[in-house]
Amino acid sequence: MKTIILAFILSITIHILFLYNYKLEKKEEKVEKTFDKKAKDNKSTITYVKLTKPKPIVKEVVKPKEQVVQKEYKKELKKVPKKIEPQKKEKKPIIPIKKEAKKQIQKEEQNFKKVQEEIKPQERRKSVDKKSLENFLLSEPVLDKELLDEVTKSYIKLYGEEYNKFTKVQKAFLQNSLKKIGEITQRYLYEKGYPRIAVRTGQQGVNVVEFFLYPNGDIKDLKIINSSSYATLDKNTIETIEIAYKDYPRPKEVTKIRIYVYYRLY
């Protein structure tokens, strides 16, 4: 009996398990079917679209009201020919001049004419005085350069074009006195003696000296224009002229003097 009962229980349990597995399999099938449907529904569909060029956006320019108004106003305006009317000149009232005022004006005009007449001869006198002064100072005439001796010509060449700017009195003095001034300077140079250092070293050369000679015999702005290339000789030249100028001839006007000073060993 026991065996029969056990066998019965086993058969029942086996049937129950079989039914349970069967139900599980069906549920799995249903789940798979629902999943497949959802997958089919979720598939992306591709649609092809034709692209066209975008049309340019034209912005409407909003004109200000003032411009529109001005244009409308200009259209309304019409050219009107201008009529130029001649201006009438106002006539100034003529103020009558009294007899006394007329007499005063006439007197002033007469006085002005007299003053002018007096000034003219004074100006003429001044020009005459200058000429007479020059003539008085010119004791000797101004000669042409070609008529001068060679020494004076060599001195005048030192001035260049500046010589033409001098007055007649200055030119006459230079023509007559440059040679004398050079001779006096050389005489004082020999009397003073040749510098010892220059003798030992055998220094020789020529200086060109410039200074202003005044009517009272003074000299100013003494300087060497052209050096002998030896400092001892240049210094000796200035020292000699500072002594010798007392014997120079005196001009009637302040005159620029340029002369040569020679250094030669014999």
TrEMBL record:
Location(s), subcellular: Membrane
GO biological process terms held by the UniProt record: transmembrane transport
GO cellular component entries: membrane
Keywords: Coiled coil, Membrane, Transmembrane, Transmembrane helix
Principal subcellular localization: membrane
Keyword Lipoprotein: no
Protein name: TonB C-terminal domain-containing protein
